[in-house]
Amino acid sequence: MIYGSATFAAAGFILLSVASAQQGQAPQGKGRGAQAGGRGAAAVSSARFVDGHPNLNGVWEALNTANWNLQDHPAYAGPMWETGAIGAVPAGQGVVEGNEIPYLPAALEKKKKNFENRRTDDPEAKCYMGGIPRSNYLPYPFQIVQSPVGILFVYEYASSNRLVNMGKPVEAGSDTWLGTNNGHWEGDTLVIDVTGLNGLAWFDRAGNFASDNVHVVERWSRADKDHLNYEATIEDPKTFSRPWKIDMPVYRRVEKNAQLLEFKCVEFAEELLYGKYKKK
User: Fold this and answer.
1) 3-state DSSP call for residue 99?
2) Which residues, 6+ apart, have CB-to-CB distance to 218 below 8 Å?
3) Phi then psi dihedrals of residue 268, to 5 deg
């Protein structure tokens, strides 16, 4: 199931908009470039959507070690010796501009405690939604479904999704894992202003985090047919001394029939979450 627990009314509206819009831009001719592989709008040959903006439709995935640690890091052992090398952290190059996350002193101490307790405290281990920006570089694919009035991001991990409002900006009514998303185009770049985040998500398995005061501005742009450039500027005066930024490429999944599969992970986390409450 591609949408899992998605808001079906919004998803259906977006898909209808996409289907209607793409009737006028069906590719001509034959060959791989003229075929739309995958499910729905998973692969689109045209670089432009019907409204003239870059076509971001597709199944995408980040291929880096940002989910382990946003910053430069060597390989190191994981939190459970039982998993051996399988659970170890691979070395990786950071995605933070300048490789520095400007924590305030108290927040830095909390980050260190998060790392020490990452085996049980990382929200990813509990199957909680990834938050923003982490959902975009978890080691699972995600799909972008585009229309002129809204852009839907559907994530394989935990079957989560978010709808980016492309109309008049709206204020966050309450705090949520994936926030309130207002988008607009600046030239060929999709800019998403994310507010109303609940501050419960981490940025990676190293314990990097922000509070519920965090404000994220994302920038998505087409590098070429099979790559997007992704940037996110993070601001949170309760946690950081200044705004800071991450950037990375995101890659199109181009294999035959590329699509999202189900990863409903709640049942995998039940023992971690509730095992301590079992009767002896």
Assistant:
1) helix
2) 132, 133, 136, 190, 191, 192, 194, 230, 231, 232
3) -75, -20
Query: Phi then psi for 109, rounded to 5 degrees?
Result: -65, -40
Q: What are phi and psi of 158, to 5 degrees?
A: 60, 15
* Residue keyed to tokens 């109303």: 196
Contact 88, 80 (CB under 8 A): no
Amino acid at 59: V
First-to-last alpha carbon distance for the chain, in angstroms, is: 38
Q: Burial level of 65, CB count in 10 A (0-12/13-18/19+)?
A: buried
Query: Helix (H) and strand (E) counts for the chain?
Result: 4, 9
Alpha-carbon dihedral of residues 115, 121, 124, 128, nearest 10 degrees?
A: -150
In a structure prediction context, what are the per-residue pLDDT tens digits for the chain, which is 280 residues long? Answer: 444 444 444 455 555 554 444 443 433 333 333 333 344 334 444 688 888 999 999 999 999 999 999 999 999 999 998 999 999 999 999 999 999 999 999 999 999 999 999 999 999 999 999 999 999 999 999 999 999 999 999 999 999 999 999 999 999 999 999 999 999 999 999 999 999 999 999 999 999 999 999 999 999 999 999 999 999 999 999 999 999 999 999 999 999 999 999 999 999 999 998 888 877 7
Radius of gyration of the chain (CA): 19
Within 13 Å, how many C-alpha atoms sit on residue 188's CB side? 12
Residue 116, Cβ density class (10 Å: 0-12 exposed, 13-18 middle, ≥19 buried): exposed
Alpha helices in the chain (DSSP H): 8-22, 105-116, 118-121, 266-274
Task: Give the distance from CA 66 to its chain's centroid.
Answer: 11
